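Ticket reopened. Same input as before:
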Amino acid sequence: MIGASLFVSAVLFAIGVGGVLVRRNAIMLFMCVELMLNAVNLSFVALSRLHGVTGQVVVIFVMTVAAAEAAVGLAIIISAFRHFKSADLADIRLLGG
Amino acid sequence: MTAPVADPAFLTRALLPDLVVSGGAMLLLLYGVWGPETEGRRRGLLLGALVTIAAATCATAFTAATLPRTGVGPLATDAFRWMADVVILLGTLLTLMVMRDHAPRARWALAEPAVLVLLAAGGMMLLAAARDLILVFLGIELMSVASYVLAGIDRRNPRSAEAALKYFLLGAFSTGFLLYGIALLYGATGTTDLARIGQALAAGPSVMATAGLGLLLVGFAFKVAAVPFHLWTPDVYDGAPTPVSGFFATAVKAATFTALVRVTLVAVSPTLVPWNEAVWWLAALTMIAGNAFAIRQRNLKRMLAYSSIAHAGFLLVAVATHTPAGAAAIQFYLLAYALATIGAFAVLSAVGEAADGILHARRLEGLWQVRPGLAMAMAVFMLALLGFPLAGGIGFFAKWYVLQAALQAPVPQTALSIILVVATVVSATFYLYVVMVMFMRPRPADAEAPAPTPAMTRLVIATAVVVILVFGVYPTPLVRVARASAASSFPAGR
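Engineering reply: fixed in the latest deploy. New output:
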């Protein structure tokens, strides 16, 4: 059971990483990052069956931080959208060189 | 096995400096949003921030004096933490002072960035104290979430918005790696406490633990901007407002390195080959690539970004030594580097960007003729970053002690030391280029003189120059303190 949960969590994490590397839309990227965080949460819950309650405590912390990150992140995406009229990273390229 | 809780009274006392900073930030937020921002209110904001930092410094000194060093528990109460707190608070203080002058000129409000800088400082101090991976995660996030907003604080500027977006996306991405690393380590060892992880790993790490350590290191490498995880750095430092970039380059880096040193010395044994080899390669690549990319940069903020990457490489050499002497060298280096970097960004803030928002090296041409003081100060900062003896002051000794720690370690890092010296020689090309531009190029006829340097910025620049030069002649007391703190914090065998 734990092995299966860890496997699913690893697959979800890999999907998240792949999504971040492949996608070019800021909101899609952000959703892939959230997928990574939730994959980690699944790992923690599964592992806490082995090691006690710490893993479940971590999950609460991670969810809180993820919520704060979502609030800040979406605000940043909106502020960038106002300037560039796009959330596509291909259009947001003032910096470089 | 147990949850990371301890005696609440002890935790409160051990967290006192962090609580003071966070509480001060909250009060300042209340004051800042109470009414419209006037010159008087900006003065009040700066005063409030200074009082908060002074109170936090006193709280740090008080806690350091009254709390004994404990070898267990989630919060470290050792001298290494207090030293790191001082560097972080100093970086925060200097940043706030430069920001106070920068905000009205750039026409952004001072209240939000001042509060965010203090909140980030609270996270950094937690990070410096963390002896449990959960606290490492919380400290990094508290610091980072505030930093993402700081990068985008200049809302009217699209470059600032882009910097915030890139910083946020890559920062959140790296958090995922860090967290998965923590999860795997927890799975392999059954604990998130660094010392217990160290004991569990001493028997020889399992595949799961090795993977966890690897992911943890990737997360840290993103945060300290080590090559090949540095790609966000030039864009973020370039787009973010100048004082904010200075804050990222110094305080954020100092706090993350403090945590990395603690994780390395407490949880990872010197014989753990995969981790040590990974740190070795990170250090080598970061030194080489950071300096190589900086050479062709003529955009000064991007150049300083690559310079900060290169310095992360020098610091990683000290991490690779795996000794308390290396930890002491890192603390000394962080102080020297923080002073020079914040000073350099303060000069750039005083010079100001061109109309297109880019701080090109041309802006400094002939600065010697119109602002000799600024030019002299910038020359000192560049020489300090280069590590030039005497004129570069403390910067020379910073590199010297890293080299010493690397060569005197039980496993001498000879190859890394050679790379360090060669990379330093190479870095002379771009640091001295800035000096050359300021002193030897004529001022272009159409270039307007920079606005008079505001008082607080001038104070920051002068303080940084004086400290760099004074300790450059006589670094012994600082080194002694750094060595004593590292030796007492990481006794052999722990």
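The mean pLDDT of chain A is 94. Chain A touches chain B through 45 residues (CB under 8 Å). Please confirm and we'll close it.
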